[in-house]
């Protein structure tokens, strides 16, 4: 019959509508009725009691269900492990990023501190040198002013026509236009001078090539070989 069976209702043979299906054809692997075995399509086939085949196949199906459930449990366990691994990987990655940023920030702060220290040394040297030179400039200006006044006095003396008046200005070591004073003034005095290359700041050159090479060579520690997280052989789970 093509109509669906209700639970507990015994199926009837399609060929013999009045016969219940009560035996199992082992040869064809289908349930059938006694009439089919005696007169029908299964008369030459090997048959077995329906109940014994039913109990055997039901036990086998129950074992298969247990295997499927166990396989599903193993798969669910693996899925949970993989999800935990994914979360741990993300958390460890964020921690590694934070640590890396902290180390680079500390290195940058150290470099910035060292740069400020060296800049301050250059600034101090600049102040010392420019202060010394500016002091020399003031001294030379004072000397120039004295020499200019001496030139004006000498020009005025040259215009003097009276011998007594002229000699009063130029005569003797203490006179305004005495020869020693003029000679000293013509030499520019005995003021200090700066040496050649005094303004150079080459001494404050810093080579950072080795640091640049070290930074370029920065890398993570060699990773150890990955461990086996799943042991045992691969299992094929029938679905």
What is shown here, in short?
The protein is mostly helical and 239 residues long.
What features would you describe in this structure?
The chain has five helices and three strands, in the order ββαβαααα. Strands 2-1-3 form a three-stranded antiparallel beta sheet. With 239 residues, the protein is mainly alpha-helical. InterPro entries: COS_domain, E3_ligase_FN3/SPRY, Znf_B-box. Residues 72-161 form a coiled coil.
Please tell me how large the radius of gyration is: 57 Å
Helix content: 55-70%
Average pLDDT number? 81
CATH architecture of the domain at 21-70: 2-Layer Sandwich
CATH homologous superfamily placement of the domain at 21-70: Classic Zinc Finger
What is the strand content?
A: under 5%
Number of helices: 5
The main β sheet shows up as: 3 strands, antiparallel
Number of strands: 3
What is the fold named in CATH at topology level of the domain at 21-70? Answer: Double Stranded RNA Binding Domain
The top-level CATH class of the domain at 21-70 is Alpha Beta
Spans where pLDDT lies below 50 across 5 or more residues: 228-239
Which series of helices and strands comes N to C? EEHEHHHH
Indicate the structural class. mainly alpha
Q: N- to C-terminal separation? A: 31 Å
Main-sheet strand order equals: 2-1-3
Q: What global shape is seen? A: rod-shaped
Main location: nucleus
GO molecular function: ligase activity; ubiquitin protein ligase activity; zinc ion binding
Protein name: RING-type E3 ubiquitin transferase
GO cellular component, one term: cytoplasm
